[in-house]
Specification:
Number of domains: 2
Number of helices: 15
Order of helices and strands: HEEEHEHEHEHHEHEHHHEHHHHEEH
Strand content: 5-15%
Protein name: Putative DNA modification/repair radical SAM protein
CATH superfamily of the largest domain: Aldolase class I
CATH architecture of the largest domain: Alpha-Beta Barrel
GO molecular function: catalytic activity; iron-sulfur cluster binding; metal ion binding
Structural class: alpha/beta
Oligomer: single chain
Number of strands: 11
Distance between the termini: 45 Å
InterPro entries: Aldolase_TIM, DNA_rSAM_put, Endo/Exo/Phosphatase_dom_1, rSAM, rSAM_sf, RuvA_2-like
Shape: globular
Radius of gyration: 24 Å
Keywords: Iron, Iron-sulfur, Metal-binding, S-adenosyl-L-methionine
Low-confidence stretches: none
C-alpha cells in the first residue's frame, strides 16, 4: 500500500492515458474483463487532473536527471519499485473489486532502458497469460530499449506511448541533456512500422497478430520552455502525418522544481493555453485544418480570447457568409458553431427542403456563433458583418456567472 501511494502519486503528471479505439472481447471460461472503447474509470487528483484509478509507475527510481521532472535522480523524494508480480496482482484484485477497468503503466528508467522494458513485458505476460486478463492495458515504450522488446510488448498491450516531452531538439537538450531525440523517435518508428505490417496482413486475409490495436500516443509539456504554440502544433502535425499517431496530449507544466532554466516555482500552470492547444489539435485531426490555417499572418501563438476555429473565421471573414443550403460538407464544418453531426444533419435535411433559420436552429449547431457566418435562403441573421461587432458579441456571450442555489 505504501508503494501504491508513492507510485500512483508519481504518475499523475503523465496525461497521455486513454483507452479509445480498441475492443478486446472476452472469449472462453476463466478469463477476466473486456476492453471496450469507453475505457478506464477515472478519478480526480488534488490539483484537478483527471487520473485513472490504477495509473501507476512501475518505479520512480530514475537514472536520468531531467530538469522538469519530479522523479529526477537528484530530487530528494521517496522512492519505490514494484515487482512484476505485484503490479499484476494489484491490477487483478482492483478489477475484481470493480475499482478499475484497465491499467495505465508507465515507469522511470531504474537501471537501463532494456531492464525497464523487460519488467514491463513480464507484467504484460503475467496479466495476459497467467491471469487471462482481457481488460485494457496501456504501457510506455521506453526510449533506448531493443526493438524486439517493444515488439513483444506491442502484441500484448492495447496501446503504447512514447513521450516526446518537448517539441524541439534544442528544448530537449536544454532540460533533458541525457535524452536523445533519436532514441525517442526510434520506438515511435518501430511501433508505426509494426502497425502498418499488421494492417497489411489483415487486408491480405493472412494469419496476423493484433499489434497495439488502439495505436500509439505521446505527450508534450506546455510552458516549461519558451517553445511557441506554433512549434508545438507543427510538431504534433508532423507526428500525426509521419508516425500515424493516434493522439498527442498536451500537459500544462506544473512547477515542481526550482532551476534557472525553468519558470518560477510560483508560476501558474498555463491551463487555458493547454485547452486552446487541444482545440487546435481537434481541428487538425477531424476538420482538415493545417497548422498554417490556425496560425494566421505569421502569428506564433493561439488566441486565448477566441477558440481556434472562431479565430480562423474572423481572420478569413472574406470567405463568409456561407449559404447553408449550398455549401459542401468540407465548408460547412469550417463554420464556427457547426460540427460534423450538425453539418451532416444540414445536408440530410436540405435534400428534402431548403433550410430556413428556424430549421437551422434545430440541427444542433451553436446558432449564437453560426448566425454571423451563414445565410439561410439568402438571408443574413447576424445583424452586422463587421469584425469588431462580431468580436464584441462573441466575448459578451462568453461571460459566465456562477449560479446560486437560491438565485
Amino acid at each position: 500500500m505504501k508503494k501504491l501511494k508513492i507510485l500512483s502519486d508519481a504518475a499523475k503528471y503523465d496525461v497521455s492515458c486513454s483507452s479509445s479505439g480498441v475492443e478486446r472481447r472476452n472469449r472462453g471460461e476463466g478469463r477476466l474483463g473486456n476492453s471496450r472503447s469507453f475505457g478506464i474509470c477515472h478519478t480526480w487528483s488534488s490539483d484537478g487532473r483527471c487520473i485513472s484509478l490504477l495509473k501507476i509507475l512501475m518505479t520512480n527510481r530514475c537514472v536520468y536527471d531531467c530538469v522538469y521532472c519530479v522523479n529526477k535522480a537528484t530530487n530528494d523524494v521517496e522512492r519505490a519499485s514494484f515487482m512484476p508480480e505485484e503490479v499484476a496482482k494489484l491490477t487483478i484484485e482492483f478489477y475484481r473489486r470493480n475499482y478499475i477497468e484497465g491499467l495505465f503503466l508507465s515507469s522511470a528508467i531504474e537501471k537501463s532502458s532494456n531492464q525497464t522494458m523487460e519488467n514491463i513485458h513480464k507484467i504484460l505476460l503475467l496479466l495476459r497469460k497467467k491471469y487471462h486478463f482481457n481488460g485494457y492495458i496501456h504501457v510506455k515504450a521506453i526510449p533506448g530499449a531493443d526493438k524486439e522488446l517493444i515488439e513483444q510488448c506491442g502484441y500484448l498491450a492495447d496501446r503504447m506511448s512514447v513521450n516526446i516531452e518537448l517539441p524541439t531538439k534544442e528544448s530537449l537538450g536544454k532540460l533533458a541533456p541525457q535524452k536523445k531525440h533519436s532514441s525517442i523517435i526510434a520506438p515511435m518508428k518501430e511501433i508505426r512500422n509494426r502497425l502498418l505490417l499488421s494492417q497489411d496482413e489483415k487486408k491480405a486475409l493472412v494469419h496476423y497478430k493484433r499489434f497495439v490495436p488502439a495505436g500509439q500516443s505521446t505527450q508534450m509539456i506546455i510552458g516549461a520552455t519558451e517553445d511557441t504554440d506554433y512549434k508545438i502544433l507543427t510538431c504534433a502535425e508532423y507526428l500525426y502525418n509521419k508516425y500515424n499517431m493516434k493522439r498527442v496530449y498536451y500537459s500544462a507544466y506544473v512547477p515542481v522544481n526550482s532551476h534557472s532554466t525553468l519558470p518560477s516555482i510560483q508560476t501558474t500552470p498555463p491551463l487555458l493555453r493547454e485547452h486552446r492547444l487541444y482545440q487546435a489539435d481537434w481541428l487538425l485531426r477531424f476538420y482538415n485544418f493545417t497548422s498554417e490555417d490556425i496560425f494566421i499572418g505569421g502569428s506564433q501563438s493561439i488566441s486565448t480570447k477566441f477558440d481556434p476555429k472562431m479565430n480562423w473565421a474572423l481572420n478569413n471573414l472574406h470567405l463568409f457568409p456561407i449559404e447553408i443550403n449550398q455549401a459542401p460538407l468540407e465548408l460547412l464544418i469550417r463554420i464556427p458553431g457547426v460540427g460534423h453531426t450538425s453539418a451532416r444533419r444540414i445536408i440530410k435535411e436540405r435534400k428534402v427542403a431548403f433550410l430556413n433559420y428556424e430549421a437551422l436552429c434545430k440541427t444542433g449547431c451553436v446558432i449564437k456563433r453560426a448566425k454571423y457566418f451563414v445565410t439561410c435562403k439568402g438571408k443574413y441573421y447576424g445583424e452586422n458583418m463587421d469584425i469588431d461587432f462580431i468580436k464584441r458579441k462573441y466575448l459578451n456571450e462568453q461571460k459566465y456567472e456562477q449560479l446560486s442555489f437560491f438565485g
